[in-house]
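Hypothesis: this fold can be encoded by more than one sequence.
Test: take the structure tokens below, design a sequence, compare later.
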């Protein structure tokens, strides 16, 4: 197996681990996985850095259901892998509002 294939597999495995940690509200795993310069742009357009994102999960302000990705493409550039695809994800707020997401993503 060549190095590029192994790199892509590692990224996909980390992404699966990230979605599982989001679903389980496991901020310790997320803190380990996410880069210190991580930024998350919510469907509302608001952007959180790593600490705010983790605090939203820790506090229960947001909860995530199971994630389903599809139509994935991975692009490799030296030591970087860029993923592009579709994500379906159920999000819930602290007051139990449900926001089903059906998004196109790049990460």
């Amino acid at each position: 197996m060549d190095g590029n294939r192994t790199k892509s597999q590692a990224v996909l495995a980390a992404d699966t681990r990230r979605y599982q940690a989001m679903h389980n509200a496991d901020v310790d795993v997320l803190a380990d996985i996410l880069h210190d310069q991580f930024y998350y742009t919510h469907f509302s357009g608001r952007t959180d850095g790593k600490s705010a994102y983790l605090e939203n999960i820790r506090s229960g302000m947001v909860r995530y259901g199971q994630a389903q990705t599809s139509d994935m493409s991975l692009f490799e550039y030296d030591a970087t892998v860029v993923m592009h695809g579709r994500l379906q994800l159920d999000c819930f707020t602290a007051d139990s509002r449900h926001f089903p997401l059906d998004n196109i993503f790049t990460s």
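Residues 69 and 87 are 5 Å apart (CA to CA). The chain has a mean pLDDT of 91.
Hypothesis status: open.
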